């Protein structure tokens, strides 16, 4: 959770409230606040609200909550004569820019601006790997023509920010603290991204700016550059920065910077709001109170959204460009709750006073755990994220059924698991010293399903069990599954041969029970055991007990 620090005088000045009232309104915006030993305001924010990582962003939201300013914030977005020409930069291809005039930087704001920049770097910027920000004094730019190049680190000479001497880029990467921390991110074959204004270096993203365009007290206008490995987060961060700086600007003027690059052309920031439709009945159901369209509109306008009635119980909503956290109508419902105040939601006495009890599926799971432990099995837990290749090759999951992760941290976490069996095999591989090995796992799997229009995926509950021994076979696991089903008060109604990518053909069966449990049982193919370097035979089973969810 991002933790920010502000001087109390600045909080009062920007929010236009006494300190006590300012802290109260911040808490209503889900910001945890306290005063440290020096009297500074320490604010802990939700990570998904980068638009409030600065006092100006918090004040924008507070003005709406207080009714001082309603609806979409208004900024004057105009063309500027600044242009970025980007060459092919393979390690960090995307770049965008913006100008904000009349910001008028003083010492306190400069301190907060650096904090704002670093919090964005750490959270949404992935510690500068995904997105990096450069902030410059516009009046110090040598030229309006800016170029973004991938150049040899020995051919670049400039004076880094807050350093006394001119250095080569190689020296910057090897000798400065910023170079040591971030120099390897975009470096390839002794080449690195560099941003020029005219013939002068102004930034080496994501490492450091040049001292030439340093922002200091007295700076009036700010030029922003944002670089990254994907275009969407670059434009998201650019919009947040431009809007928050414009909140401080006396003129609220934002300049569009044109970018020409191998991947295309753009003119940003446009700050055009996106559109959503909110069903008033849906909002009422989620909150648990009856709302009229006028209630929804008034609440959303106080949270700085554009809102108007669309008829048939629907409300058209305009979402500010900087609100990158709004992804689903339920996010708008949360905004309505914040506008109305959690403390203003009247409690209701339950119509029926009932004793709590386990859901049928939880009772089933509890009993299954106890029974399997009684059969000598040990429960294990594995990650929900796994290798796509394992899911296909070891569990026979079809490619189009996999739910893939955008921008995964590695090949071992690129998919949500659609089967529990591959993880059990990996566990068996590393525990061959412990034969006979009996392990099981209960948990969710996720399968892509186009029939689910809202999410495009379905969640299913699975139980997988594995037995590894010198003479492990189909019958060993079959007897456990049959015993488990009988002791859980269920009955097998169908057993038939089947095929499965993990199991030997002719030694694989599928069964169904009266309560809707579906199981596949089999002996693992020798070639898969050889591939995993497992020396012992393995028999395994996977039970899908999702049907228990719907049973009363």
TrEMBL record:
Domain B5 positions: 271-347
Subcellular location, record wording: Cytoplasm
Main location group: cytoplasm
Catalytic reactions of this protein: tRNA(Phe) + L-phenylalanine + ATP = L-phenylalanyl-tRNA(Phe) + AMP + diphosphate + H(+)
Cofactor dependence: Mg(2+)
Gene Ontology molecular function: ATP binding; magnesium ion binding; phenylalanine-tRNA ligase activity; RNA binding
PROSITE patterns from the UniProt entry: B5 (PS51483)
Record keywords: Aminoacyl-tRNA synthetase, ATP-binding, Cytoplasm, Ligase, Magnesium, Metal-binding, Nucleotide-binding, Protein biosynthesis
Residues that coordinate or bind Mg(2+): 325, 331, 334-335
Superkingdom assignment: Archaea
EC number: 6.1.1.20
GO biological process, one term: phenylalanyl-tRNA aminoacylation
Cellular component GO terms held in the UniProt record: phenylalanine-tRNA ligase complex
Recorded family membership: Belongs to the phenylalanyl-tRNA synthetase beta subunit family. Type 2 subfamily.
Subunit structure: Tetramer of two alpha and two beta subunits.
NCBIfam families: pheT_arch
Name the UniProt record assigns to this protein: Phenylalanine--tRNA ligase beta subunit
Species of the source: Pyrodictium delaneyi
